[in-house]
Design brief:
By secondary structure, this protein is an all-alpha fold. Strands 1-2 form a two-stranded antiparallel ribbon.
Length: 787
């Protein structure tokens, strides 16, 4: 045993024995003063290593012993409160975190008011007023040693595994992989990998066995921790060579690792530093099996860099990040690899250069110029060099340095001609040079820069030019919303979907359920103006087009698992809006009005000639009419389309409101959704006025209201009262009396109670309105007694 630890342990054991058994005040106080040596508060302080051992191992045990001895008789062993003051000094001057824990433990463990509880509460007040809580928090802010120590233990186990493998024994390191993943997923990559990576970097150099052990260690890390582990390794590794030795070909064996390294860290995040980017992309370039991933990453980076939607919506910092990654990729790839995809890469480059040079922000334009110079020189070396004039600063020099071609260990060593940095000019002279020698300039710079004689174009009537990626068919929209990574196509599909659904009802019915599912789960990928409105209108259009199937599906999903409250309320909104559209008078007639015009009608797309408009206006003014009828067109009449599908909207929503699921409890915490459900059911009831299914709907709705009539939330009660009014307005009076007499009597008594006693003013007002509707039926509901 360590002699320091042994000496401290013996001293503490002797002190505990004296404190527990002695009744001699002088003996006790001398023991406590000897223990204070380990706190560094006396002239004869213990050595630093003994103080550390005491604080780490024995201090809390001493404190618990002191708490256990606290009593009036024990404190009176010495006069003038000497013992109490010395007793309190251990809590006020020792390690603050342990003292605070013992204080709270003793207070929480007190079963009833007592002398000990009073003294501990007073000591806690002194502890707080002395600023000891700040010491507690400061100690927690310091670096914890657990994870570095854990990293050292992992290294020790790995050494044992390597020794066993050399001896011919089989070993499994899956448990170590889980430990590593657990530490990383809790955000401790820096601590544990800060110990592992420097040692493994040395051990794997020229040692195939250690490399294989490292590869197996990272391969067995669980998928849920793979992203945290890989990001930590990329940050901790000093270069791509070390990263390649530690990871091997992990990206070709694990789909999760490939997604993190080639998608997540490049496109979805932009927090990696430039050295991290160089390590990541250099790792992909270090082996022939990984280089196809580097080529694919370059294609996707260039496509994203050139996307006009990304230029509009992505932050400038992310655009710089993608530009740096693109330049690093170009530096690592050889001539043959670039020429194999030359046409595709040039197309993306030209589109991006045009979008960036047209942008109004100078930093965006400058990024386009730098990348265009480097990429064009690498992709089209035989052509004239493309040069721009822009301000050269630290960022520009850094990006041009990243573009310098470099050889790799296991790949083509040929590279394109080095791209020399372009001398910086003034930031306002961002003009493109055709590649030939620059013509001499005449006049001063101020004369050349003057634009006083330039006449501006009138752009007041210009509109945004829409992309040609707008889908023409419903199925194209469905594909773009589910599988497309093109942001412009995704946005165009969302904007076009409502019109295509209404235009092609037959095609919509073939994929209506798939469309409803996609729209219900659709999340905003880019900053699309009016996204929620576009999504909702498209879903309403799909529901109206295939009402029975889609409404039944949406109502079933309202009670399904794994939906947020926002999605459930979206379902209610869509069902109410679709029902309103289906019940609109003359909806069927509007489609027929789009047919060929009658004999005297004007074609919809034609324009009335000017002379004809003048003649008609003169005739109108000169004509005298003795009786002027209505000049407006009469509202088109037609059957209520909601009549035949109302049951699909209404009854599934009522079936399971009292059955909670894991994430959804209408009768529990989710009362906001319950109130919205009550309002939606009332709206559906009102829209089913005079339909065949109105009576069973009214009966079921009144039963729903009766079951929840005493609900404590005012918003829910308001929905229930509105639902009662909807029943009274939608079901004919004779049917109410014939089929629902008992329900109406129950509703009347409840409404009267609410109108008089409810605490919410809106509830009282709604109850009075419902009672007024019932007043018309009072003579039939409550027959007057015979005179």
């Amino acid at each position: 045993m360590d002699p320091v630890a042994s000496a401290v342990r013996l001293a503490v054991q002797e002190a505990l024995h004296i404190l527990s058994s002695s009744e001699d005040g002088g003996h006790i106080i001398s023991t406590l003063r000897s223990l204070r040596r380990y706190l560094g508060e006396t002239e004869t302080q213990a050595p630093a290593e003994e103080q550390e051992e005491f604080s780490r191992t024995h201090f809390s045990t001493i404190l618990r012993c002191l708490v256990g001895k606290l009593s009036p008789d024990w404190l009176d062993l010495l006069p003038d409160g000497q013992l109490e003051e010395l007793w309190a000094s251990f809590f006020l001057e020792g390690p603050a975190d342990q003292a605070f824990l013992v204080l709270m433990e003793s207070i929480e463990g007190a079963a009833s008011p007592s002398f000990r509880l009073m003294k501990m509460a007073q000591l806690l007040a002194r502890f707080l007023s002395a600023g000891r809580m700040a010491a507690v928090m400061e100690g927690q802010c310091g670096q914890q040693n657990y994870f570095p120590l854990l990293g050292e233990e992992v290294l020790r186990v790995l050494q044992a595994v390597v020794d066993s493998l050399r001896g011919g024994l089989d070993c499994s390191i899956s448990f170590l992989s889980q430990v590593l993943g657990k530490a990383c997923v809790h955000g401790r990559q820096k601590e544990i990998l800060g110990v592992l990576v420097p040692r493994l970097m040395v051990l794997t150099q020229g040692n195939c066995l250690w490399q294989r052990v490292c590869w197996r260690l990272v391969e067995r890390v669980p998928d849920r921790a793979m992203e945290a582990m890989l990001k930590g390794l990329v940050e901790a590794s000093p270069g791509p060579e070390v990263l390649s030795r530690l990871l091997g070909n992990l990206v070709t064996k694990s789909k999760k690792a490939q997604f993190v390294m080639t998608r997540k860290l490049l496109f979805l995040q932009y927090s990696c530093s430039t050295p991290m980017l160089q390590s990541l992309l250099g790792y992909l370039a270090m082996d022939s099996q990984r280089r196809p991933l580097l080529v694919q990453a370059l294609k996707e980076l260039l496509e994203t860099w050139g996307s006009s939607s990304a230029i509009r919506h992505a932050p400038l910092e992310q655009q710089r990040y993608i530009s740096k990654a693109l330049l690093i990729c170009l530096a690592h790839l050889g001539e043959a690899e670039l020429q194999a995809s030359r046409d595709e890469l040039l197309a993306s480059l030209m589109e991006g250069v045009k979008s960036r040079l047209d942008n109004s922000l100078p930093p965006v334009r400058r990024l386009g110029m730098i990348v265009a110079e480097v990429a064009s020189a690498r992709l089209h070396p035989e052509g004239p060099p493309l040069k721009f004039q822009y301000e050269e600063d630290d960022l520009t020099r850094e990006m041009l340095a990243l573009a310098a071609p470099r050889p790799v260990a296991d790949g083509p060593l040929e590279a394109g001609p080095p791209v020399a940095p372009v001398g910086g000019e003034s930031p306002d002279q961002e003009t493109v040079d055709s590649g030939g020698p620059q013509a001499g300039r005449e006049g001063s710079d101020s004369e050349l820069d003057s634009d006083d004689e330039l006449v501006p174009y009138d752009m007041s009537g210009d509109g945004e030019q829409r992309s040609s990626k707008t889908p023409a068919y419903v199925r194209d929209c469905l594909e773009a919303l589910t599988a497309s990574e093109d942001w412009e196509r995704w946005e165009a599909a969302l904007r076009a979907l409502e019109g295509l659904v209404l235009k092609s009802p037959a095609a919509t019915r073939e994929v209506s359920l798939e469309l409803a599912k996609v729209l219900l789960h659709l999340e905003e990928k880019t900053a699309v103006a009016g996204f929620e409105g576009l999504r909702q209108r498209a879903l309403v259009a799909v529901t109206v087009t295939d009402a029975a199937r889609v409404a039944e599906y949406l109502a079933a999903q309202f009670y399904a698992l794994n939906y947020s409250l926002r999605q459930r309320m979206d379902i209610l909104d869509v069902l109410a809006l679709a029902a309103q559209e289906l019940s609109r008078p003359g909806r069927l007639g509007r489609a027929s009005q789009r047919g060929p015009p009658g004999p005297g009608s004007q074609p919809s797309g034609a324009t009335v000639p000017a002379w004809q408009a003048v003649v008609e206006e003169r005739v109108r003014r000169k004509t005298r009419r003795f009786c002027k009828g209505s000049t407006g067109r009469a509202a088109a009449a037609g059957p209520n389309e909601f009549n035949v599908v109302a049951g699909y909207f209404f009854f599934p929503l009522l079936q399971r409101f009292d059955r909670p699921v894991v994430t959804f409890d209408l009768l529990g915490d989710d009362q906001l959704v319950l109130g919205r459900l009550a309002h939606t059911l009332g709206a559906l009831m009102y829209l089913a006025v005079n339909t065949a299914v109105a009576v069973p709907m009214g009966k079921a709705l009144l039963e729903f209201v009766w079951a929840l009539r005493f609900h404590g939330d005012a918003y829910v009660r308001q929905g229930l009262l509105s639902a009662v009014s909807s029943v009274l307005l939608s079901v004919p009076a004779e049917r109410l009396l014939a089929d629902l007499p008992d329900e109406l009597l129950e509703a009347r008594s409840w409404l009267a109670d609410v109108a008089e006693q409810d605490a919410d003013e809106d509830c009282r007002l709604l109850a009075v309105k419902a009672l007024l509707l019932l007043e018309k039926l009072r003579d039939r509901l409550l027959p007057l007694s015979s005179p």
